[in-house]
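Two quick folds needed for the group meeting slides. Do the first one here.
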Amino acid sequence: MRLLIAIIFIIQIGSIDSYAHAKENIIPKAWKNGIHKKVRLKEHTNIKYPLVHLNRPGAIPVILLHGFGGNVHNWMDLGSALYNEGYDVWGFTWTINKERNIDAAGAKTVKEIAKYVFKRTGQKSFIIGHSLGGMVARIYALGLIKGSDGKYIISKEAQRDNARYVKGSVVISSPNGIFTEDISSYLKIFDNMPNSYLPGSVDLSHVINAGVAETDTLWVKLLNLNLYVLRIPFVSDFITFVFNMKMHDFDDYSLAKLARYGYQPVPVSYKDDLQRMSDQIGSSSGDIVYADVFLKEKRPFPFAYITGSEDPLAPTESLIQEARAHGETFLSLRQAGHIDPLFGKMGNQSVRFILNFLKEQK
C-alpha cells in the first residue's frame, strides 16, 4: 500500500505542469486581483473583519456571507463569477467576533456589514449567504433585536431600517429548522471542528498579498492527492459529509481549495448555539422559533433559495416549503451536497440562478 501511495505521489508531482494547463487558474484571476484587507465595521472597536473586495465602482454591490466553519475564500469561484458579470463584490469573514453568538451576528454583525458597504457605495446591496450565512441573513431581514429583558423579539421598525441598506437576498443550502431526518449525528461533526486552523491550511489573503499565490497552488495540488488517496482523517470525513463526492473528479481542485484556504476556527459561542439547536432552531433566549418565523413572517425585501437534494442540513423539501410560503423563487440542484452549490458545475448553475434573481430586482 505504501508503495502504491508513493507511486501515485510521484505521478502527481510529475503531472503538475499538465494540471496547470488543465485548470487555467486554481485561484480565479478576479479573486487574486481583489483587495484583501481587514476592516473595522464601525468606530471604537478593535475587531477587524477580513474582507475581499472585487471592486467595480458604480456597480450594484453584492455581499457574501460564508457558512459555519468557513471563511470568505469559500466564495472565490462564485464571487469571481459575479464580478465578471458586472457586480461589485464584498466578501467578509464575519464569524471572528467571539463575543457574539448567532442571534447577535444576525442582529448586529450583518447590519454593520450592510451599513459599511452602503456608506462606501451609496447603494443598497444584495446579500448572498451560504448555510449559517443564510440564517443570519434571514435574522437580519426579520429585524431581530434584543429587548431590555434580554429576550429577542421581531421588530418591524428594525425591518424597515434594515431594508434601507439591502435590496434582496439569496440563501444557499441554509437550514430553516424543518428537517426530514435526525440531524444530531451531523451536528457532532460541526461540534468536533477544531478551534484552531487545520494543519496545512493558510490564509489565502495573506498568500495573495505576499505575492506567492502561484507558488502556493502547488500545495493545493499535493493536498488534492492527500484527500483522494491518503485520506487526512478530519478533513476527509468533513469534506465527504458536505460534498457529494460523485460530482467531483480527481482533477477537480474544489475539495483541496476548501481544505487549504476555506476553514476558519469557530467561536465557542457558535458551537454552543448549534448544539442548543439540535432539537429546535431558535433564538438563544428560547423565545423565537426560527422554523416558524422564517416561514410565517413577512420579509422587507425579496429572497431566493438554492438547495441540494443530497443535503440533510437544509433539505430540499424544507426550503421549497419556505420559498412557496413567501411566493419566492428557488433552485433545486439534483445530487448536490451541502457545499456543492458553491463549486464546479453546480456552482455554475447557482451563478446563473443568482444572476437572474439579481436582474429581476433591478
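Then this one, please, same format:
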Amino acid sequence: MARLRRKQSVLLTIAGTLLVLPTVAIALTTAHRDRAATAMAPGDHQHHHQHHQHHHPTSNGHGDHGSPGEDHGNHGNHSTSPTQATLRTRGTVAPGQPIAIEIAIAGADGQPITAFETFQEKQLHLIVVRDDLGEFIHVHPTDRGDGVFTLDLTVPTAGNYTLFADYKPTGQGEQVSALALAVPGADSAAPRVQDDRTRQINNTQVDLAIAPAPQAGQSTTLTFEIKDTNGQPATDLRPYLGERGHLVIVRQGEPRDRSAYLHAHALGNTPPHQVSFHTQFPRAGTYRAWGQFQRGDRLITADFWINVP
C-alpha cells in the first residue's frame, strides 16, 4: 500500500467512519480558525473540531469516507463569506476503478448552498492531482440540486490525491476547496522534473514561453504556441470551456491546500495559434502547469515544470 504522507488536518475514526476535519477559510486569520461542520448521512457521525494540522486519511479501500476541505475565497480576493466543502466516497476506493464521490458544499453557517453560477461553462470544475504531481485529471461533477455534486471518478494509480473544487456560489466570488483522497495500492513512480519547454502530443507540438522570468510574488505571462509537428501553426483551435484555453498550476510539496493552486484565464488579442495567461506565483518552489486546448474534436493537455526562485 502506498505510504501516506502527513498533511495539515486531524484524522478521527468514529464508528468505523474516517473523518478528516479541516482547518479554515483563507479569508480568516490563523488566530481565528473556522470550525468545520460536516453534514453526515443517517447512521454516520457528525463532529465539530478545531485544529491546525492537515494530512491525508488512510483508507482500507471500502466504505464511506468523509473529508472536509478547506474553504477559500476568490482568486486574489478572499471572500468574506467562506464556504466549506466535504468529500465523501462510497464503496471501493481503488485505482483504475470508478470511485463514487460526493462533494457537499455549505456556507459558514453549515447550511447547504444550492445555487451556483456557471463559469467557464460549468458550475464546478474539479482538478484532481496526485500529491507528487504525477497525475492530473480535470472533470465536472453533476449538481444534484441539494448542495451536493456527484461523480464517478477513476484515477489510474494509487497514492494521495488532492481534489481542488473550483466553484462560484450565486452572488459570491470564485471559491476553491482542497479535499484529500487516499487511494490504496502499490507505490507509483514519482514523476521526473523536466525543464524543457516543448511537448509533443500525437500530431501537436506545444511550446511554452514565460516572460518575464518567473519570480515569487511577481506577475508574469505564460504563452503557449500550438503547432503541427512539422512546425506549422495550428489553424483549428476552438474554444475550450468557453475560452481559448484552460490553465491550472499546482505547487509541489507542502502544504496541500488552496495556496498550492493557481487557475488562470486566457487573454484575448493573441495570434490564432497562441494562447496566453497572466498569473502570479505566490511563493518560491517547483510548480507543474497543465495547459488544455481544443484542436478540432481533440483535447490537448500539455504539462510543463516551472521553477520559481
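Slide caption for protein two: Residues 10-183 form a domain with the Immunoglobulin-like fold (CATH 2.60.40.1930).
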